[in-house]
Amino acid sequence: MWKVKRYASGTVLVEQVEPARANESIKVIAKGGSTARPTAPEELRTYNEQDHLAKASESTKELYEQLKERILQLGDVKIKATTHCIAFVSVRNFTDVNIQQKGLKVFLNMRKGELNDPMGKARDVSTIGHWGNGDYEISVDTGTDLDYVMYLIKQSYEKNKA
Predict the structure, then answer these.
(1) Does residue 71 contact residue 41 with C-beta atoms inside 8 Å?
(2) How many CB atoms lie within 10 A of CB 38?
(3) pLDDT tens-digit profile of 16-53?
(4) Is-contact 20 7, C-beta < 8 A?
(5) N or C: where does the chain have the smaller number of CB atoms within 10 Å of the terminal CB?
(6) What domains can be seen in the chain, in order of their start residue?
């Protein structure tokens, strides 16, 4: 997490408040050895779960809450809302949930070939663009077996907690 202060003189101070644990960063861009700092936007946007849930139907909101409750029972799990999804983090991010109008897209932070998915519910997204981390996507709606989804999520949790 970064704290950005803009002073009346136009000077911008960028200070790291929490160590980076993901691939996020603020880079200093300078030309020709200059020590000038880039300017920050007037307002930095932060996101929360409610921002993502605002576009969802009531049944999708209920589905998300059920899934979230199960994920939090895995252990020491933190929730981090980002621009495009809600991340669930232990030591590292292990799953991302993208909330849609009529369902959820769940991304597992595992490389292609690492997931044991005997029912074939996870889709390989290793060669296409997507918002979440990892190479697997699971579509979840009200008819989806959450026990099986949790079986898959738990594999990613176990891999990413060490």
Answers:
(1) no
(2) 11
(3) 776 655 554 455 555 555 555 555 555 677 888 888 89
(4) no
(5) C
(6) 1-44 (no CATH), 49-160 (3.90.1150)
